[in-house]
Design a protein that fits this description.
283 residues; alpha/beta; six-stranded mixed beta sheet; 13 helices; 6 strands; 51% helix
Length: 283
């Protein structure tokens, strides 16, 4: 079987979890390979995401690694056996892999929590708002590159608009609501879009107003994505050179607490809708 040239983020996550299980068991790759009856190079390829692993071998490895969390093992088996190709595959080779990885993460998520300080969360953006955000990239995008990114961002919304919508809980700072990434009309349309979405049962929007005392968590921008089991949760944070992914147990625990802290500091959903409605009337 040919080795993968560019493993997806989901394939890499499976690889990383298997490596973590092996290391937690105190085994070297050579020792794990001997237990499985394969060469050490094959373990290395599995743990690098360069090749897949069958359900039988995965369960054997989990047994050798003394992992007794059956729910977690079943989730890894599901990841290993997933051969589906989602809508995002049409963008492969046209957009950076990080765009495809994020869409794949959306697709397999149980829920999404957002903390947005400067920009409206991607899943809630209008087409014109997204176009304005992408237009500010340096170096400048070509017209084709720009439209591909906008089209991809709009397609991602299928997870909150489809037949089995994703639960989405967003805390948005007033700065993100007030900053005009384009003109007055685009800003007003974006606020109206947020208001419309906030009325849907599976979407919750909360606002952090400027006049909140003691808000020292302005660096908390993140997207927290719930995996099929908590151990497979992922945090995505924007970076000037692309998205950064965090998935270690301690990191996830920290970001879960941070989201709860920011959420507790925000206005209630009802007061947040009133707040956004007032902003809309100002435009």
């Amino acid at each position: 079987m040919a080795l993968r040239q560019q493993p997806t983020a989901r394939q890499m996550r499976l690889a990383v979890e298997l490596r973590r299980l092996r290391e937690s068991a105190g085994l070297t790759a050579r020792e794990a390979a001997a237990l499985l009856g394969v060469g050490s190079a094959q373990i290395s390829q599995i743990e690098s995401g360069l090749t897949g692993v069958s359900e039988k071998r995965l369960r054997l490895l989990a047994g050798h690694y003394r992992c007794t969390d059956e729910e977690f093992i079943d989730a890894l088996v599901a990841m290993a056996g997933d051969r589906s190709r989602g809508w995002w595959e049409e963008y492969r080779g046209l957009l950076p892999a990080s765009f495809l990885d994020l869409a794949e993460l959306d697709h397999h998520a149980r829920y999404q929590h957002n903390v947005a300080i400067l920009f409206v969360p991607g899943l809630l953006q209008t087409e014109d708002y997204a176009r304005a955000v992408f237009s500010s990239r340096i170096p400048k995008l070509t017209e084709n590159e720009l439209e591909l990114r906008v089209r991809h961002r709009m397609a991602r919304a299928v997870v909150i608009e489809g037949p089995a919508p994703l639960s989405c809980d967003s805390v948005i700072h007033e700065s993100a609501l007030r900053i005009r990434v384009s003109d007055r009309a685009v800003s007003r349309a974006q606020l109206i879009r947020i208001l419309e979405l906030s009325e849907v049962d599976h979407i919750t929007v909360r606002v952090i107003p400027f006049d909140l005392d003691g808000f020292s968590m302005a660096s908390s921008t993140m997207t927290y994505v719930g995996g099929s089991v908590p151990k497979l949760d992922t945090v995505v944070r924007d970076h000037p050179h692309g998205a950064l992914y965090f998935d270690e147990v301690d990191q996830l625990a920290m970001y879960r607490l941070r989201f709860q802290d920011v959420k507790a500091a925000s206005l209630t959903p009802e007061r947040s809708r009133d707040f956004i409605h007032r902003l809309t009337k100002e435009l």
